[in-house]
User: What shape does this take?
Amino acid sequence: MQLLKPSYLKHILVTVGAVVLLLPMLLSGRVIIPVKDATFKDWNRNSFWHYPWGKSGVHKGIDIFAPIGTPALAACGGVVVGKGYNNMGGNWALIAGAKYRLYYYAHLQETAVTLGQVVKSGSVVGKVGDTGNATGKQPHLHFSVLSLLPHITKWDNEPQGWKKMFYLNPHELISKSVTTLPVRHHNRSSVSG
Assistant: This one.
């Protein structure tokens, strides 16, 4: 007994595939500051793509400074697709989020996520630290955003400028999200006093 005809099964697979590919484009791309209680004063807004920057050549993110152990937060909802340790980033985590973007969190004192874990915006990813090539430096979260879809118009003649098609400026993403949040209006008639 055949449960599904091959043509029907193919239709289901194509539909599921389309949803999987298109859903990230429909999800909110809102990005919050990924360090608890941090403000715009806690990073240098001009540090993205600063040159020269150690072994990587250019700085492909921003460094958000905070006391060691401060919670590092998911900048948006997504799925944890990587975590580990390397000599440059130290303890790191990678989250796939909306709009085909990868969110990279590095120099963590420790990670608090597991592979495949679904996280909500604001979920704890780990703790700010000074691991990897940040050892002995002021504790901070290195935060990068990588687009899986190239933004061709961002390519320029700066060092490694072609990579700007893929690395997005986290400061700009956070700024746009903060300035586009809905304004809450308080109903004065419900206030007693």
